[in-house]
Write a structure and sequence with these properties.
The chain is mainly alpha-helical. It is about 60% helix and about 10% strand.
């Protein structure tokens, strides 16, 4: 319960920060807390530089790759449990059942999830959380916010965070010392997986704060709607032209001698880059 209470306190602190930093807001409407966010971004960066990144580098250089893969698979298998719950809550029955199959296969044939048998069998992996579930049903993401030690988020996802904590099966692991060691290992393993990407990003980005913010928001929106731009566009208000009579439609409709060209369809594919997620655009034609 302490973890849930702490997450609740973070949400309250952010609400207070939103009020106090209104005068320091930027011109970006999605980032009205930029003054606070940049300060927290620098703090997180310093913690990463001093503590997390050196440990993750040693982890990656010392441990054999198969051990690192086993750790990643084990915690990835646990995350499939919460993904299944959120997919089913969103009404995505097929994806939810796939998550259940993954957990069943990997927990048995995969030796408690150490081996990702399900992916080898062609069962896709999903990464769903309660923030995505709220977004799926139309809850606005709200302002962008940088959480202490946790990094990029939105107000909606911050409010959803306590339930994500409750939905993590590892939270119920006993004894406590084993749970804490596992949690620390999980964080280090994830950071180690992003070392090369973050090094490249640090060298390439002129303003890392804006680069991470814009990439995160774009990728997060893509994840909420599973890259479905049609569903995303349905959330925007549209003009209702249903009052026009069908007869008038026929009279007004132009007769084209040639079919109009089909515009290229742009879809967003999430791409992981360092400890933050950015999105890449892929253009295809129908």
């Amino acid at each position: 319960m302490n973890t849930v209470a702490n997450a609740g306190r973070i949400a309250l602190m952010l609400a207070i920060a939103a009020t106090l930093s209104a005068c320091a807001s930027s011109g970006n409407p999605r980032d009205p807390l930029e003054g606070y966010n940049r300060a927290m971004f620098k703090f997180n960066d310093k913690v990463d530089e001093v503590a997390l990144k050196p440990v993750a580098t040693a982890y990656k250089n010392v441990l054999p790759s198969f051990v690192q893969t086993g750790v990643s698979n084990f915690f990835g298998n646990l995350s499939d449990v919460w993904s299944a719950a959120n997919n089913l809550a969103q009404g995505k029955g097929e994806a939810g059942l796939q998550d259940i199959v993954r957990v069943t296969m990997n927990s048995t044939f995969g030796i408690l999830g150490l081996i990702d048998i399900a992916s080898q069998a062609g069962v896709p992996k999903h990464n769903e959380d309660f923030g995505q579930t709220l977004g799926w049903y139309g809850v606005s993401p709200g302002p962008y916010v940088v959480l202490p030690l946790m990094g990029p988020s939105t107000m909606r996802d911050t409010v959803a965070l306590p339930l994500d904590v409750v939905g993590d099966p590892w939270r119920y692991k006993d004894p406590t010392n084993v749970r804490n060691i596992g949690t620390f290992t999980r964080i280090v393993d994830k950071r180690a997986a992003y070392l090369d990407a973050t090094n490249l990003m640090e060298a390439a980005a002129l303003d890392r704060y804006e680069f991470i913010r814009d990439g995160y928001l774009q990728a997060r929106e893509s994840k909420v709607f599973d890259g479905d731009t049609d569903r995303r566009d349905q959330k925007a208000p549209k003009n209702d032209s249903s009052a026009i009579d069908e007869e008038d439609d026929v009279k007004l409709a132009p007769v084209a001698s040639e079919p109009a060209p089909v515009a290229p369809v742009v879809t967003l594919e999430p791409v992981t880059s360092g400890s933050n997620t950015v999105a890449a655009e892929t253009t295809t034609s129908e």
